[in-house]
Amino acid sequence: MPEIPDLENVKSFLEQHILGVAVQGAETPRGWVIRYPTALEFVRTLEGDAVQSIARRGKFLLFSLRSGHLLAINSMLTGRLQYREGQPKKVHKRTNFILHLADGHDLLYYDQKSMGKVYLVPADRLDLIPNFSKMGPDALEMSLLEFQERLRKRRGMVKPILTDAEFIAGIGNAYADEILWEARVHPHKNAASLSVEEVERLHSAIGSVLRWAIGIVGEEMRCDIDRKIRDFLRVHRKGGEPCPRCSHTISEIAVRERVTSFCRQCQPEVPQHHLGLRSGRAGGEASAAQTAS
Ligand SMILES: [Zn+2]
After folding, report:
1. What domain range is 218 assigned to?
2. Are 270 and 155 in the same domain?
3. How far is ligand 1, taken at its centre, from the CA of residue 201, in Å?
4. How far apart are CA 163 and CA 155, in angstroms?
5. Under a CB-based contact definition with an 8 Å cutoff, are residues 259 and 236 in contact?
6. Active-site residue, 3 included
7. pLDDT tens-digit profile of 199-228?
8. How many domains does the chain have?
9. 168 and 118 together in one domain
10. Pick the catalytic residue: 113, 125, 222, 258?
């Protein structure tokens, strides 16, 4: 599933290649991912139009068009944008729509499961996109204070909270695992039981992991914007391999198709100071939490 590191790079790439280039024609071979308007209106509106700017909000890419419309794409699990020289001999068999650009390139969208959601709405009618206004703050923009306050109202396991777009927008299953590993927080830990330090580490890991990944994905992606680049991740889907931090074997739990990978050694379910494992600060000074327990 495209997450922030993928989408930020798709956005940067397309900003360099499609801005101001007129759409000469559009096709919708599998138009049912277009939730609004009809596929026919979608084609009519886009023809002759041009993308003026691109933004990202959570897992949505938002293309502002010269006509005052907004093309909003949420790729969900398997949707991908693709940028190619025009008139390719073969297109992906699951291609949902194609925009033929005046400079001879095509912008295509294909989706293995056709679960993606595409909307073409007047720029001031974002209310036509279900749940768009319910989206929480973007993961790259949420302050520590906001994170602490929003988390205080939550109960239940921390991982599903991180992937809940109403809580924080833009994090999916893969990067939630990476963030939790970086922060040394067990994915099943109850949000209400997180220590102040754990909440701070989580917030800091959201920014650092996503920015680190944006850099790596950008280097590997180049013009293949539909490529899924995940091989560099440190824990997600690395079950059975040694943890890059402590060498303990990484655990993997699958619920339906959702995999959770984590290290039981550096992401313990019981806080480390309860096990007497937590080390004090430099100079052997015990932390307040250690002294208190
Ligand atoms: Zn570890």
Report:
1. 144-282
2. yes
3. 16
4. 14
5. yes
6. yes
7. 999 999 999 999 999 999 999 998 999 999
8. 2
9. no
10. 258
